[in-house]
Amino acid sequence: MKIVVTNDDGIDAPGLASLLEVAERFGEVYVVAPAEEHSSGGHRVTVKDPIRVEQLGRTRFRVHGTPADCARLALAELVPDATWLVSGINEGGNLGADVYMSGTVAAAREAALMGSGAVAISHYIRRGIPLDWRLAESRGELVLARLLASPPPSGAYWNVNLPHVPGECPLVECPLDPSAMQVRFRREGDGYVYGGSYQERPRRSGTDVETCFGGAITMTQLSL
């Protein structure tokens, strides 16, 4: 099986290196990732200007475009016979309403639109605690072992979030939390800076936000 990996933190991000380490246990992996960070960039695509692509090796491509551009180029031109595209591992959660802003999720959504199997994997971060990327890899392997063993869902894709807790944790399939994010700002000079708290965001019982915050790996299937 051929697998494309991408992200929105940029091709040199540690989360992408961890995802590559995991994905290589399941098939032949191609990296098609953005040259720069595009966090919270949503599903923006480039349609008027040329998208420069640098081939860094037989299976590694640096794209001067967005995460959704990477998905498009990978599946239309660079690796058209890929079965799956996996985006991540994002350094920060993409839970609930985050999926509408996330470049990580946008890459997976674009892949699903193009008929590919697609998974977005993100890592929720608790304040003041460093990420353990080795632990993230072991959890990512659990996720991919489960999802890649089945045919890609038609008209849908997976959004996965890893919790920031030590030790073993369960794998839970749950719905997306529809709660709006806290929208508040603080004034700085003649501008405004977003001041919402991710950890204190509203949440509904049984959904991905509460479940991941509670220490489980969440898997949410999203429809196109």
Verbal overview:
The chain has 224 residues and is α/β, with parallel strands linked by helices. It has a single domain, classed as Survival protein SurE-like phosphatase/nucleotidase (Stationary-phase Survival Protein Sure Homolog, Chain: A). The protein contains 5 helices and 11 strands, in the order βαβββαβαβαββββαβ. Strands 3-4-2-1-5-6-7-11-8 form a 9-stranded mixed beta sheet, with helices on both faces. A two-stranded antiparallel sheet has the order 9-10. Helix 3 (103-113) links the parallel strand 5 and strand 6. Helix 1 crosses helix 4 (133-147) and helix 2 packs parallel to helix 3 (103-113). The longest helix is centred in the middle third of the chain and has 15 residues, at 133-147. The protein is globular.
Short description:
By secondary structure, the protein is α/β, with parallel strands linked by helices. The protein has helices spanning 14-23, 67-78, 103-113, 133-147, 208-213, and strands at 2-6, 28-34, 53-57, 60-63, 84-91, 117-123, 156-162, 171-173, 185-188, 191-194, 217-223. The protein contains five helices and eleven strands, in the order βαβββαβαβαββββαβ.
